Amino acid sequence: MSYCRQEGKDRIIFVTKEDHEAPSNAELVADDPNDPYEEQGLILPSGDINWNCPCLGGMASGPCGSQFKEAFSCFHYSSEEVKGSECIDNFRNMQECMQKYPELYPQDEDKESSTQAESDSGAASAAPSEGSALSPETDATPSTSDPSPDSASPTDSQMAS
Amino acid sequence: MLSCRSVLKKLPPLARASSTLCRLNGRRAVLNHGRPVRVPAANMSTGPSGLGRDTQLYIALVGAATFAGGVYAYRTVKSDQRRYQERIDDISSRPLKLSSQQTDEPINFSEPTATEATETAVEATETEPIAEPEAAPSPEEPIPPAPEAEAAAAPTETTEPVPVQTPAVEATPALPEVPSHAPYLLIGGGTASFAAARSIRARDPGAKVLIVTEESEFPYMRPPLSKELWFSDDSSVTETLRFKQWNGKERSIYFQPPSFYIQAEELASAENGGVAVLSGRKVVHMDVRGNKVKLDDDTEISYDKCLIATGGVPRNLQAIERAGEEVMKRTTLFRKIDDFKSLDKVSREAKSIAIIGGGFLGSELACALGRKSSEFGLEVMQMFPEKGNMGKVLPEYLSNWTTEKVKREGVQVIAEALVKSVTFKDDRLEIKLRDGRLVQTDHIVAAVGLEPNVDLAKSAGLEVDSDFGGFRVNAELQARSNIWVAGDAACFYDIRLGRRRVEHHDHAVVSGRLAGENMTGANKPYWHQSMFWSDLGPDVGYEAIGIVDSSLPTVGVFAKATAKDTPRAATEDSGTGIRSESETEETAVSPVASSTPAPALEQQRDNYGKGVIFYLRDKVVVGIILWNVFNRMPVARKIIKDGEEHADLNEVAKLFNIHED
């Protein structure tokens, strides 16, 4: 059974697991998916790419930012059967640029494999996958602003990678 | 009078002074003329036009004076215009003159810039002509800072070698690296500034961002300076400044390695823009009307959009400031990388350190040093006026509980201590408290708050908030047109929680990002609530959001430890990578209700192992602490965003599933 105590203005409640088993009847206000104030995920409601998404880390803002934006935009809007197949040049530009900054864009194994999974074009060498590849780029922004990585510990993103 | 007025219309406002005078006189004269002159015949001698001789003389004098004034003003303005035109022509012709004179010099300069140039070959050719006028030794007569229109037009045309109007640069042998114009100027090189830079670059393709910072470092994050860096096993940590994150991966405290940034001198010509950092410079004066700032070396930079992210300076105790040189030498005001390095050195050499301050920074440093205390034979003391650690944040019962934990980290906690004076005696520092207690120590760390840096408010004419300190800005973080403020220095309007100023890392990131978005046209208010966190040893880790002030009424819902539960070492949960083998891992403490025959191992005391604490203001939750409960911040954020009155907070607490991991 839960137990309650009052210390001045502070109230203290101890609850057991059983006490909290019944679902909560607290009412939360329904969220408006088109709220202009809210932080957006990677893809905006309009379908455009949110370049300021914390999930991208610094990919869109670094020295190779413009090449990255071109490549990823091309891929995103591509309606070819093999998505992004017409974007090979863009991705090549991006890769060339990134090779000039090995410190910022480490060219390691997991980056390769994760991008293979992302795009089947094969030419893409660095799609924006969250994870280790972006560790030097991502900075201390709370991941909780982005709906999908909410499950990741918030502290991760703060200190972040 | 009519002639005077038509001349006035031609004159630019420079002649305002004389024109006001003229107008006043004119009005007076008109009044005299216009009104039918009622002449008390006896008092005035009349002249030919029917006006008194005195009045006539007066009008004549005034007319002459205003005419002369008008002529003078007109001539001054004309000559100014002429001089300005001459100056412009002179400057435009200068690069051509120089290129013929100094054909060998540019080659030396362009080479290093070419190799440094990270952009395509096009840029290399561009830097050459730009380097020439800049390479010139400072001209005989100081060039006035270029008018805004001129300067603004110049850097936007990146494809042409524009004769950049460098303000009077003193004779430095190296390339004058200060660009005269930055489309985005960020004052301050901390977390908020970097977040804004990133945001601007993401949203404005090819944006050119200039960060001007007093520090000699690239932007870095502060939390590890009082936490992770102290727990590192690496002995060279003071040099590398790398730490291990919660997921085991290492990273540097610098947000980005130096290769991320471009050189300041390349900013104007960079094809795709970039972020340049001008370090070791202080902005001392801000001209809002002219959209430009002045640095401590008298160089001026004009801007289109400016962000003030000057952060703050650690406060000091009056007792220490009065105490003299010897005491000041042995006192650390902790904030920067240098402070971390020097304190690390002190911790190895000194026998005793006293930390004054019981808030976040003081408690974290106390715990960090406390852990080293056995290793180094170091005595660590922490003193503060409150009754317990985090006394201004946590409700009393929790603050007391936390203090016990801090003590277990090896810290001698001296609560309810007000420092009266500090003296240097027998090669030691003697701290005298108001209640008479004396504390001897070798070194003091003062963590007594932050003074927001509003030095620029005076010259910029910006409002400073009297309640919270800092620059007063609106919900969109804007102080005035084209000027935004973010981070510790911003006193902003939070739509949900009211006007406040927040000194946390995540707030710097969130507000910096928002300012960057608004600088690129977003017009969004502060809405995404920032959070903060702290860890005090292996048992206490919490995340918090909103207004967390211990003076507010609170409701805490804690998981009751049953005999079956074993408290897990919160290090894995804490998410900050503090790995510590807790030797004091106890089994479950006895439950509090006296009704059960308590299998009490120790005395009956409450174990606030994990739970949720709600802070209420007028029955609405305005702040939440997640106590040893992680990955639930989105739920907390939602509750605060809703701003609803909840009848039963236990029901709200259910949303957090505190019994699970």
Keywords:
heterodimer, A: 161 residues, alpha+beta, two-stranded antiparallel sheet, 2 strands, disordered C terminus, B: 661 residues, alpha/beta, eight-stranded mixed sheet, 28 strands, 34% helix, 20% strand, globular
Please give a structural write-up:
The complex is a heterodimer of chains A (161) and B (661). With 161 residues, chain A is α+β, with helices and mostly antiparallel strands. Chain A has helices spanning 65-77, 88-99, 109-118, 154-159, and strands at 3-7, 10-15. Chain A has a two-stranded antiparallel ribbon with strand order 1-2. In chain A, a hairpin with a 2-residue loop joins strand 1 and strand 2 (10-15). In chain A, helix 1 (65-77) runs antiparallel to helix 2 (88-99). The two termini of chain A are 43 Å apart. In chain B, 34% of the residues lie in helices and 20% in strands. Chain B contains 19 helices and 28 strands. In chain B, strands 1, 2, 5, 6, 7, 8, 20 and 21 form an eight-stranded mixed β-sheet that branches. A five-stranded parallel β-sheet of chain B has the order 10-17-11-12-13. In chain B, strand 7 and strand 8 form a beta hairpin. Chain B is globular, with a radius of gyration of 33 Å. Chains A and B meet through strand 1, strand 2, helix 1 and helix 4 of A and helix 7, helix 16, strand 26, helix 18 and helix 19 of B. Chain A: It holds the Pfam family CHCH. Chain A: Residues 101-161 are annotated as: Disordered.
- With helices defined by DSSP (H or I, 4 residues minimum), what is the helix count of chain A? 4
What does the overall shape of chain A look like? Answer: elongated
Helical stretch tally of chain B = 19
Strand order of the largest sheet of chain A: 1-2
* Biggest β-sheet strands, sense, barrel of chain B: 8 strands, mixed
Our measurement of the CA-to-CA distance between the termini of chain B, rounded to an integer number of angstroms, reads: 87 Å
Structural class of chain B: alpha/beta
Task: Give helix % range of chain A.
Answer: 25-40%
Please tally the β strands of chain B and state the result. 28
**Overall mean pLDDT of chain A:** 71
Estimate the helix proportion of chain B, in percent: 25-40%
Total beta-strand segments of chain A: 2
Q: Between the first and last Cα atoms of chain A, what is the distance in angstroms?
A: 43 Å
Strand content of chain B: 15-25%
